[in-house]
Amino acid sequence: MTVTRQPPVGSGERGPAALPQPGAASPDSHPEDAPRLRMRDLCEQTGLSRQAIHFYIREGLLPPGHKTARNMAWYTPGHVERLLLIKRLQRERFLPLHAIKALLDERDEGFDDAQRDFLRRLRARLQLDDVTDTRVPFARVDELVDAGRVDRDDIDRLYAAGLAGLGTDDAGRLVISGDALAVVEVLSALRALGFTEDAGIHAEDVLVYQRAVHDLLRQEARIVARAFQSSSPDDAARRIRDALPLVHELISRLHRARIQEFLAAF
Predict the structure, then answer these.
(1) Averaged over 36-57, what is the pLDDT?
(2) Where do the H-state alpha helices sit in 6-149?
(3) Which residues contact residue 47 at a Cβ distance below 8 angstroms, ignoring those fewer than 6 apart?
(4) CATH code at 74?
(5) Is 99 contained in some domain?
(6) In this predicted model, what pLDDT tens digit does every residue of 199-232 receive, in sequence order?
(7) Which sign does the torsion angle of CA 152, 153, 158, 160 carry?
(8) Do residues 240 and 225 touch, judged by C-beta distance below 8 A?
């Protein structure tokens, strides 16, 4: 069964394309020896329409090409890499475009080319299903709501806040990504404990934790890239997999200790 992310306005995917190889050129650089690609080459290599590519350029997800005439611009393999990454994040993670743009901006600003190449190779080897909750890739929203597992209003509000990835299956039924489902189920469990809308607890309050984890991961990625850049991706992936349960325990203990310290001041 094929699952399609809720499409952004102006998108126009044509079909799947191979993921880029590590080490592709950055799209906002134009080295003299880089292959020069035209718009039709981008369309052929990514399966995207001209409309979709121009939309990504207007929205700031893709740097413009090097203009040589009013209606002519050259692009690089880095543009192909960026477009395929956008497609992958939409297809696999159901991420909205504003979230993808934030990730791409941070990647470009926070890491040099060597570190980005290392993290790309690490991504291909780091599988976390056995150290985190194993989830189905996606689930039907109507079935979840009918079973009383989640609240539809919470899903809608999390989606609007960019915290829940939604898509549609072949029959046009709304589905939610497995990662987002885990968040919604935790929120539902909190609702059952009294953390309800009536009590002033809103679905958007999850953003507090999302932002904290975002900032934490940004620092962790820099530490990992600095510490293991010279190691093989396989070795780095093994070390990270072994360390993650300990890191999660450390975060939990620090959180509990900080709560006690905070309350002690009153």
Answers:
(1) 92
(2) 39-46, 50-58, 77-93, 97-110, 113-125, 141-146
(3) 13, 14, 15, 16, 17, 87
(4) 1.10.1660
(5) no
(6) 999 999 999 998 899 889 888 988 888 888 888 8
(7) positive
(8) no
Q: How far is CA 5 from CA 163, 184, 195, 246, 264, in A?
A: 14, 18, 30, 34, 47
Q: 180 is in which domain, residue-wise? A: 138-204
Tell me which residue of 187, 191, 234, 242 sits closest to 210, measured CA to CA.
Answer: 187
Does residue 174 fall inside a structural domain?
Answer: yes
Angle in degrees, CA 134, 138, 142, rounded to 5: 125
User: Into how many domains does the chain fold?
Assistant: 2
One domain, residues 70 and 11: yes
* CB-CB contact of 46 with 120 (8 Å): no
For the whole model, what pTM was predicted? 0.67
Q: Angle, nearest 10°, between helix axes 77-93 and 97-110?
A: 130
Lowest mean pLDDT among 78-87, 111-120, 138-147, 233-242: 111-120
E strands within 120-202? 138-140, 166-168, 174-177
In this prediction, residue 187 carries a pLDDT of 94
Domain boundary among 178, 204, 230: 204
Strands 4-5 and 72-74: unpaired
Task: Dump pLDDT digits (tens) for 4-20.
Answer: 555 443 444 443 333 33
Last residue of a domain, one of 147, 170, 204: 204
User: Same domain for 160 and 85?
Assistant: no
74 and 10: one domain? yes
What are the phi and psi torsion angles at 208 (to 5°)?
Answer: -60, -45
Average pLDDT over residues 168-197: 90
Handedness of CA 212, 218, 221, 227 (dihedral sign): negative
